[in-house]
Amino acid sequence: MNALGQEIAALIALEGPLTLERYMALCLQHPRYGYYLRRDPFGAGGDFVTAPEISQMFGELIGLWMTEAFALAGRPRGARFVELGPGRGALMADALRAARVAPEFLSAIEVDLVETSPRLRERQAQALANAVPKISWRDSFSDVPRGPLFIVANEFFDALPARHFVRTPEGWREQLVGLGETGALRFGLAPGIEPALHVEAEEGSIIEVNGAAQRLMTEIAGRLARDGGVMLVIDYGYTQTSLGESLQAVAKHAYVDPLENPGEADLTTHVDFAALSRAAAAAGAKAFGPTTQGEFLHQLGIQRRAETLSRRATPEQRAEIDAALRRLTGTGDEREVMGELFKALAIAHPALPKPPGF
Ligand code: SAH
């Protein structure tokens, strides 16, 4: 077992089995061994590839979307352009470059990057070395100063920890991470039933609850409803809350056992967009979508952007642009193309008119 595994095993021996939420939080955010704190997971040599890393078109279109959202909101004073989990900073760099067509946006905003990883903060600072607006890093969304907020979160909500409940004859019991007879980590069930869960389902059914995502959405939507602005969420997930679980562990572009080598794989769940919309509405904000990433990018004109880029490109570059377009917007095998599995959702101040793409 690796060092984090030993630390988790010691914790379980002391305090008893952990909820999946606690286990995921330790794997991803442990200050010494956490997945995001220890490594740069992106790219061909890493564990996974995200849309902004596939093509500059993704961040550019989002940058233009933000300038339009800013105009729709009436170009408010004191506005902030916020990114949650900026990774290597590619999306923000592409977005700010594209936003040069709207100087009134660039001169009005300050940028806030919400990022826990010191290593990724460094990458972001490099990627944004020539950026014009003032940039500040924040440990959590709560630290972003007040003001109308224009927020983007790409592949961020999937990284927030979730809980699982399993239907047994007696009722719903929480799935926990405990120790097996050999001392290895293994899944088990809490002894007590969950009195607050009343969903009827067959024995063996699983409910996945992403409490962390819903709490964060409640906080953000409350700020948007009070101070104005909009948040664009793009992630893989589903549009209707349903039974079943979607925990996955990915390392080196392959699925691995989530309990083996904790902290060395990206642990995520699919995003429940319906639950996010409900949390936002309850906090006084308005939701647009979700729509699929493919539809969203097409509506924003990705085809035209690809054609413009292709005009000045070599044949090899043209093939790359075509491949990126297919990967970002295509439908079919979800391991190859993102167009359908990924969704876009906008959460806004209730007075904001419908933004582009929805
Ligand atoms: N948006 C980027 C990166 C996605 S990966 C892209 O599309 O390429 C998730 C990002 O969120 C990483 O930058 C990770 O360090 C950060 N992150 C994960 N959990 C976080 C948390 N709880 N608080 C702040 N940042 C977090």
Kindly, what is the distance between the CA atoms of the first and last residues, rounded to a whole number of angstroms? 47 Å
Bound small-molecule species: S-adenosyl-L-homocysteine
Largest sheet: 8 strands, mixed
The fraction of residues in strands falls at: 15-25%
Oligomer state of the chains in this structure: single chain
Topology order in helix (H) and strand (E) letters: HEHHHHEHHEHEEEEEEHEEEEEHEHHHE
Helix content: 25-40%
Structural class: alpha/beta
The beta-strand count equals 16
Mean pLDDT: 96
Shape: globular
**Poorly predicted parts:** none
Rg, Å, rounded:
21 Å
Number of helices: 13
Quick structural overview:
With 358 residues, the protein is α/β, with parallel strands linked by helices.
Defining key terms:
358 residues, single chain, alpha/beta, 23% strand, 5-stranded antiparallel beta sheet, binds S-adenosyl-L-homocysteine
Textual characterization of the structure:
The protein has 358 residues and is an alpha/beta fold. The protein is built from 13 helices and 16 strands. Strand 11 (248-251) and strand 12 form a beta hairpin. The relative contact order is 0.15. The protein binds S-adenosyl-L-homocysteine. S-adenosyl-L-homocysteine binds at residues 28-29, 36, 50, 52-53, 85-87, 91, 114-117, 120, 154-156, 159.
Task: Outline the fold blueprint.
Blueprint: H1 3-15, E1 18-19, H2 20-29, H3 35-38, H4 51-54, H5 56-72, E2 80-84, H6 90-98, H7 103-106, E3 110-114, H8 118-127, E4 135-138, E5 149-154, E6 163-168, E7 171-179, E8 185-189, E9 206-209, H9 211-227, E10 229-238, E11 248-251, E12 254-256, E13 266-268, E14 271-272, H10 273-282, E15 286-292, H11 293-299, H12 302-311, H13 315-329, E16 342-348
Parallel strand pairs: 2-3, 2-5, 3-4, 5-10, 10-14
Antiparallel strand pairs: 1-7, 6-7, 6-9, 7-8, 10-16, 11-12, 11-13, 15-16
Helix pairs in contact: 5-6, 9-10, 12-13
S-adenosyl-L-homocysteine (SAH) is lined by residues 28-29, 36, 50, 52-53, 85-87, 91, 114-117, 120, 154-156, 159.
